[in-house]
Every structure is written in structure tokens, then in C-alpha cells.
Amino acid sequence: MSTCAKRLPPILVLIALLVLLAPMACRFAWDYSTASRRHQQFQSMFVWPRGWRVRQQRTLRSTAQLSTAEPSSPSPECRLSMVHLITHANDIYTQGDRTIIFWTKTLQCGDNIQAEKKVEAIRVTRSGMYFIYNQIMFKDERFTMGQVVWRRFGARRHAAQQEKPLLQCVCSMPEKRPNQSCYTAGIVRLGAGDEVAVIIPSRGHAHISANPAQTFFGVMQLT
Predict the structure, then answer these.
(1) Residue 27 and residue 91 share a domain
(2) Cβ(104)–Cβ(86) under 8 Å?
(3) Of 179, 146, 181, whose CA–CA distance to 165 is shortest?
(4) What is the dihedral of CA 167, 172, 176, 180, to 10 degrees?
(5) Distance between CA atoms of 198 and 179, rounded to whole angstroms?
(6) Are the CB atoms for 179 and 43 separated by under 8 Å?
(7) Where in this chain does the record put each THD domain (predicted)?
(8) Residues 128, 191: contact at Cβ < 8 Å?
(9) Degrees (nearest 5) of the Cα angle 126, 132, 136?
(10) Which structural domain range is residue 158 located in?
(11) Quick check: helix, strand or coil at residue 62?
(12) Same domain, 100 and 209
């Protein structure tokens, strides 16, 4: 005779599980409600200004926009002055036995070097070291040509010391197709009110090129 153990009905098993889990569920609900009340009490200890959260959100958005925006390029500044001049064919004159060139301003930066729209000389308004450069393309048939960069002292100087040569250039002209450029440059100390001019001495009615890439004159401030 075989004996079989009687099995419990499924409904009884489910009831037993509910009885065992009910205390745990009640404990969890109690802990959650207690923590929620404590959190509310903690927030009530602080009194936030009216509209603080709105202003905080606006501040965060503004900060994000500033961080993603491209940096603005600084405005250009000229710490040291400079001027660059060119000439035209109708701005070349003869004065006695020398040729005078009137220059037209094409580039300028800063206020320490002054040059009008059409000038014979460049004037500096601040004492310091300056870099002077000049080139002339000669188209003259005379065997030698050249130019001299002169310094004209300010009004504070004595009349006997009004001018002084600073730089000079001499070149030999070819017999056939007389085209020769003469370039000179150097660093000099100039005083406030001094002027710098270019003269072609002992050569009246000199034939030169008015091409801006061949004949030019400029001064750059170094200190």
C-alpha cells in the first residue's frame, strides 16, 4: 500500500506568503513617510527670496550662453606710430638745382607721426627712436643719381642748425635703358617737432618712376 503526502492547496500558500510579507511592507511605508516629513521640515528651515529660483535659472542660462559664445576680437590698437607715403607723376618739382618730391599718404597708424594728405616732409610729435626707409626708381640718363634724407629740426633749435643729412643713397645709371632703384634705410633719434624730407640734390628735373612699388617713403616709431 503506497502512501502519498498531501499537498497544500495553492490558495493557502499565497495566504501564508502575504502574512509573512505584510510586516515588511508596513515597515517600508513607515520609513518612507518619516523620511519625507523630515525632508519637508529641513526645507522649511530656509526661507528662499521670492523669485530666487527664476533668477537662478536665468543666471545659469546666461552663463551657458557666455561659455558657448565666441570670444570677441580685441579692437586694433597702434602702440607705435607709422606712416607710408607714395608719389605721383605730377607731384615732382624742381627747386634750383635739386628735385623736390611731394608725397601722398597711403597708410598711417598712431598719432606720433603726422603727415597730411600731400606733404613734402613727415613730422614727428614725440621724441624717440625711428626707423626711416626710402626708395626711388630713377629713369634718368645722367650717369649717377641719388637722394638724401634730411632732418629738419624743430623750432627750439638755433637757425644755423635747421637741417642735417641723415641717410643718402647713390647709384650708377646704366647707359642703355636707364632704370635703377636706390634704397636707403636706417634708425635715427628724432625730437618732438622734427621733420624728415627726401631731396634729390644737384639733379634738377630728375626723371623718376611714380610707381608705388618702386618709389616710396616711410617712417616707423620704435620707442
Answers:
(1) no
(2) yes
(3) 146
(4) -20
(5) 19
(6) no
(7) 81-222
(8) no
(9) 140
(10) 82-221
(11) helix
(12) yes
**pLDDT digits 0-9 by tens, 161-203:** 688 999 999 999 998 889 999 999 999 999 999 999 999 999 9
Rg of the Cα atoms in the chain: 45
User: If DSSP codes are grouped into helix, strand and coil, which group holds residue 44?
Assistant: helix
* Eight-state DSSP code of residue 208: B
Bridging pattern class, strands 128-138 and 180-190: antiparallel
Q: For position 149, which CATH number holds? A: 2.60.120.40
List of residues 6+ apart from 21 with CB closer than 8 A: none
Given a contact cutoff of 8 angstroms between Cβ atoms, the answer to whether 180 and 172 are in contact is yes
The total of structural domains in the chain comes to 2
Is residue 181 within 8 Å of residue 135, measured between CB atoms?
Answer: yes
Q: Quick one: which H or E segment has residue 28?
A: helix 10-44
Cell numbers standing for residue 126: 614725440
pLDDT for 42-97, tens place per residue? 555 545 455 545 555 565 565 555 444 444 443 356 789 999 999 998 999 999 99
- C-beta of residue 221 within 8 angstroms of C-beta of residue 81: yes
Q: How far apart are the first and last CA of the chain?
A: 123
Which H/E stretch holds residue 72? none
187 vs 3: CA distance, rounded Å: 124
